[in-house]
Amino acid sequence: MSFTGKYELQSQENFEPFMKALGVPDDQIQKGKDIKSISEIVQDGKKFKITVTTGSKVLQNEFTIGEECEVEMVTGEKVKAVVQLEGNNKLVANLKGLKSVTELNGDTITNTMTMGDLTYKRISKRI
């Protein structure tokens, strides 16, 4: 299954408490909470390039399945991570105490991030 495509955020749960726990400043949380971000994914075999545009903020990460890479978090911090593919539709990464699972089902991508007992969920649809 190919992840390649553009996806628009449809809904999210626990955005504010999760961003606060990550250390994102309140003004950025308020600016970002109502913006429908666009995620663009380009998959070439095991190589991925993911660009998330939220208003004027652009976050871009590239990685190869199973290889260590440097990933920029929403805080701007860069951390080392290894992204794994589970089955043919689930990307899993552990970044500095945070677990990220991105699952593709048809035209819907569900991204669930867990840190301690906090879970942040984003649902995006292919556009």
UniProtKB/TrEMBL annotation:
One Pfam entry name: Lipocalin_7
Chief location: cytoplasm
Record-linked PROSITE patterns: FABP
KW Metal-binding (keyword) present: no
Domain Cytosolic fatty-acid binding proteins: residue ranges: 5-22
Domain notes: Forms a beta-barrel structure that accommodates hydrophobic ligands in its interior.
Name assigned to this protein: Fatty acid-binding protein, liver
Species the sequence originates in: Eurypyga helias
